Predict the structure.
Amino acid sequence: MNGIQAPTIEYGTLAPMLVIFGAAIIGVLVEAFAPRYLRKSIHVPLTLLSTAGAFVLVIFQVIGGVPTTAAAMGAIAVDGPALFFWGVILVLSFVSVLLVIDDDHFVASAAAVPGSAAEEEAEIAGGAHTEVYPLIMFAVGGMLLFASSNDLLVMFVGLEVMSLPLYLLCGLARRRRLLSQEASMKYFLLGAFSSAFFLYGMAFVYGFAGSVDLAKINAALGTVGGLDTVLLIGLALLGVGLLFKIGAAPFQAWKPDVYQGAPTPVTALMASGTLVAAFGAVLRVFWVALGNLDWDWRPVMWGVAILTMIVGAILAITQTDIKRMLAYSSIAHAGFLLIGVIATSPDAEGNAASLSAIMFYLLVYGITTVGAFAVVTMVRDAGGEATHLSRWAGLGRRSPMLAGVFAFFLLAFAGIPLTSGFFGKYAVFLAAVANGATPLVIVGVVSSAIAAFFYVRVIVLMFFSEPAADGPTIAVPTAATAAVITLAAAVTVVLGVFPQPVLDLADKAASALFIR
Amino acid sequence: MSLPVLAVDPTLADFGKDPLWITIIKAVGVFAFLMLGILFGVWYERKLISRMQNRYGPNRAGKFGLLQSVADGIKMGLKEDLFPNTVDKALYLLAPVIMVIPAFLAFSITPFGPMVNMFGVQTPLQLVDLPVAVLFMLAMGAVSVYGVILAGWSSRSPYALLGGLRSAAQVVSYEIAMSLSFVAVFLFAGTLSTSEIVSAQAAGGALEIGALSIPMPSWYVILLLPSFLIYVVCAFGEAARIPFDLPEGEGELVGGFQTEYSSSLKFALIMMGEYLHTFTASAMAVTLFLGGWRAPWPISLWDGANTGYWPVLWFLVKFVLVFSAVIWTRASLPRVRYDQLMALGWKVLIPLNLAWIMLVAVVKLMRTGDGSIDKTPVMVVGAIVIVGAFAVWWRFDTVNQRRKDAEKARVAAEFEQLANEPTAGGFPVPPLDLPHYHGAERKEVPSGTN
Amino acid sequence: MTTEYLVLSALLFAIGALGVLIRRNAIVVFMCVELMLNACNLAFVTFARMHGNLDGQIIAFFVMVVAAAEVVVGLAIIVTIFRTRRSASVDDANLLKY
Amino acid sequence: MPWLTILMAVPVVGAVLVALTPKGNDKLAKQLTLAVSVVVLALTIAMAVQFSPKGNRFQFVETYEWIPRFGVHYGVGVDGIALVLIALSAVLVPIVVLASWHDADSPNAKRSVKTYFSLLLVLEAMMIGVFAATDIFLFYVFFEAMLIPMYFMIGSYGGAQRSYAAVKFLLYSLFGGLLMLVAVIGLYAIAGKNTFMFPELIGAIQDPTTQKWLFAGFFFAFAVKAPLWPFHTWLPDAAAQAPAGAAVLLVGVLDKVGTYGMLRFCLELFPDASKFFTPLVIVLSVVGIIYGAIVAIGQTDMKRLIAYTSISHFGFIALGVFAMTNDAGAGATLYMVNHGFSTGALFLIAGFLIARRGSPYIEDYGGVQKVTPKLAGVFLIAGLSGLALPGLSSFVSEFMVLIGTAERYMVPAIIAATGVVLAAIYILWMYQRVAGGPTAESVKGFKDLNGRELWVVAPLVALIIGLGFYPKPLLDVINPAVDHTLVSVQVEKFTPAIAEKGAGQ
Amino acid sequence: MDLYVPILVLAIVAGGFALFSVAIAPFTGPKRWNRAKLDAYECGIEPTPQPVGGGRFPLKYMITAMLFIVFDIEIIFLYPWAVSFDMLGVFGLVEMVLFIVTVLVAYAYVWRRKGLDWD
């Protein structure tokens, strides 16, 4: 009992995360104290500035030298990859927040029964739930924590801090309330289910290693004998929890439903930021904690990756809703990313190459995704966003610019050269081939081709079909939405032509691998 | 075994070593104490409150009506055991049991005295002590809430259901404030074990007035008065005693969650459970704040005061005094409104408590911390927190007050308007010939033939 | 000695998981999830005892917090959807299909 | 002077300018496009003049680091083969622009005129880029990116089935390209040289098995692109549905990338694997020659028919490439150019007919030569060039291919020669049905070629006839490059059999 | 484990008593059937029909329950902190201040949003 040493916390190192959480808390205070009409005008700058500020802090850390030991008594590892993930998450959440600013996406009163007088009243009163902003900040903070945790417990906490606000955000769509609420409930029930699996897996890994610290688990792999079953059960259950979060098959079922039902800006955040954070965690668990066990998990992950790519690509073909289609595309992309996770190599250099490829992929995919969903927010009809594919027919005629940009994003998803998506895929495939996963790459290529089919289908629909007489209108973009689309398109082009600086950055971040 | 060493304060290590027969003796002893306590307590309460209200109280059964409680108990046993036809049978039966067992168990960690020689065995005068004794007590209190909710729910009657919910809401609300009020005690005692908390209150400093050295009892009631006061308020809420006896609030909810429990033995169990909560609350007040079984100052000058079985006497005296205070309150205060009750718990006690805890922590740190600690920032932070908390609270309160006043004025205006115009829809009394008031014909056993 | 607790925890977890899969009422499903979390807690505490360190018990605290947070969020969502649909059955929530 | 970069930059800048022309002023957009394409042609000629056949293999080389992380360079440079193909593109584009003058404003066009021409210029830049690339990665980038403007041109401006055709085209090519990507990655990873520069990668892969796998990846992509039987099914659809101008570029230039890639990359990078697979490829080529010809005979749609003839012709080209003799190689390269001109002319003339009658079906025509003799005349010349009549350009190349093949593989050469006979059937029969016979009612109102159309076909006819009689300038440029290629492949040299053999020897 | 034996003993005693009381009750009292007696009690009027499967809990109590959970969890952390406060020193104080302030933020939000109003 007397052995307790007062712990230490490196506040400076954790500053970006603390800024985000601080902003979230201030956001709650704003909700509590600011009058209703002022809230949004406080929240928007607060959210954007704190995200930008956190990003600047990340940059300072990168310039000032990346820490070489884990912070907060080994609970949080702010290493090169973590800083890269932080940067990416912050950028993605910044642009997602720009989409959130448009009030039209969020319900005025979540508690009001759809179609009731209360709802109408709230609608007439105008505005939307301003709680969205602090919720997003909490989710972003959770993502940062999730991606940088060096300890399964912190990872679990990060997972929940990230997920819980998202569960709520999913249910806040202004139009199609039923759909949105349903998405929220499904996401919640399945998310809670999967985090229970994660937790049980964590319990077993703890039972095996006597610690939840990733480095100690790794050390225990070599020294502890006779508990292999416990370890393997733990490993499998942990995997289920993590794979659920990235939406890998066969745990992908929630993704389309949730992406479709959630307000589109939230979908954008989930499809980009959550994926980045989840892959950060996946990499940490599988590479840091279970790195010495790769002979055990690699065959399974091969199967998962293949299944994910194929399922994502094939089911996407049958979709009739643009958001669902993008969800399946996200599943397929998760599969491609898993190829990178599997591409471990016995030497550090090979691992660094895989890691850097994954990080680059996540960045470019995230930005393009946000851009694509930003376009989705702009195609509207009387009932809100017109997400049914048939409503997109002839969009190229009606609004060539928008359709053109969207087509460009789709081509980037498909991995056509001169888009950023191509280099993302290329980097991952290259790493995989270099580390002996060529068959996976071939599967990846085949499913890319299948995936190209449904991307192309949308382009056909937009450009080569007759527009419907009562087709959707194109909303005049708010400055923020326009900025998001422009930024996403610009990044997709620039990284598609000249990816070197970002690749360098990713390499540098990955060069030291994860600290333990 | 060496010489029996008496007057040794028991520590956690002394528990769990009793032979089974000693344990059984102790357990039965506690049980008997509580059963007798209830019988005596009910009588004492009625008698005391009668005297305060200038009447006699029970005086028929036995000398001074001492057997009144026994008579009541027997009467309940002989009453018809009703099963209303809508109830959920199993839960309806179980609810009183669920209520009463934890109420007994909550008392088990109460220390009655130091190590004694019981039939040749060296044992502490306490049924059991745990590293988490106080937590256990709280947990048992919480389990009782299940009984309340289940009783209300299984009755399938609106009054019972509402009463059960209200009661649960009240109890859990006050449980928070109550748990918080213990934190300061743990800060000082450094343990959750009741026996160790009692020992921690033994060593008082000495007050030096000139040549006279008066040993100060370091009872937490003096050191941590705010905590004690909050605890007392919460104890009333938790035990649902007047002024916070809303769960039974006869005037509002008929009988609350026990509406459907007619006056049979099940009802008796519920009553016992509630009474036991009051006992536990009193015993905890004694243990945590009033020095437990230790003799108060003048007596403690006598060396033998805290040895042997004597402390049981000190404990009982303190216990009865605290219990009397509870009754005294009942005789003095009216019942509060439900919103006032909840507002007090949530908006006053909890923030006050948290601020107080922080203050205590800061002070303690400054007092015990070594010299290396720079005290200025600690003080500044502490001051800011406290001032901030008060500022926020004060601001809230005025805002609420203003809003309530406005609402009151609005309602008054509305009433005014309606009263002047009976046809406007508000006040005409509903016609008396509504069929609802007559109901179906009945042909049953008339009342009063019992 | 500790194996029995692990078996119990596994049983609880399995019951919970099965409940999630076969029960239709959202609240019951949700309670099954909570059951799973508590099975985890049991496993943690058991392993903590096995290893003689306190980590598992501390983790159990955190799990309780998370479970509580999940309860708050989850019930809010379920209640909202219940108010909308007057039903808490998972099957009735079937607008989203592939 | 960075010729090749300028050649690519000019159309791109032109495309941007065209896209920025004010709305409604279609004429300005067209004129601007024409001007840009003519400038490109002029620049190409200026560059070609400076090309020295005896000089270094690659000339006008520019190499800059593009993505050092992947060892990717912006590396361009041309040898003789690439030069003539770039020249082919540069020549065809102005012609196509002129020919497409009214394509985009026909009633079934879905998009603005300027977009069409803008896409055309982008396509030109990419066509030049794909031939000029000496970095395999850069080549791949152009190879894939090229699909997109073509896809939009077919999908937006094509015939009734255009979106089906466009998707089919894109997906086939994309799929092939992705398999090539795997091979490209494999090449990079296994060679371990951290570069994609083509000259440095020659001979980098020695292991036979690896060579075979990588060869398969590259070859599949090129076979789809070329298109070689049995990967050809997209071509008839795409070519038939594409607007005439786009079809010209599609068949005339884009598909050449496939055969060009076989010659340049498959052979030189994987010589052993190439030899291993040669029998298979030759069988495919021969089957393609015969199959394409026979199916062409049965076509009722002119553009489809021409597309099938191309499949037959690509069989010849592939045959020539894989025969691995100097003659066959040079012939195949020459064939690529000639086929571009002759098939281009056929598509354009078919386009003129369709523009007049509004139907692609042969049965809707008849007796055209009486109504419009000039049109019928050029139709005949183009057709005869397609069947390789001596004196017209295709003859030289086809003959060289057959001779070159026969040096090594007699039987396939003989079978392939029967393709010539079949060619006569499908071309002449089509001509007879369209131009000969009694004049059909619907044909009566036809106007003969107008000034613009004359300007379109005149250069083509001139080239067809000119190259038929005097292919030496081209062969002078081509031969050293083909020799070089075959040296890399390390096949034993055969004595030259043709008098036109380069003077440089 | 031995620590819990006495509690078990007391639980057996108390449980035996309680169950005995419940079990004996039907036999000690008289039985006189009366429909009104067996109706749910609603101050003498006909009882409101209750839905099959039990009554539903009014929603506003849910908020109380949620708040209770939040604060109860806070207490979970306060107790160990209080017990080991001496060992944690300034660090413990600072962290706990941060923790409590965070909880108070949520508390202030709930208060302002009328989550703490009852009537």
Notes: Chain B touches chain E through 105 residues (CB under 8 Å). The mean pLDDT of chain B is 81. The longest helix of chain B spans residues 375-420. The radius of gyration of chain B is 26 Å.
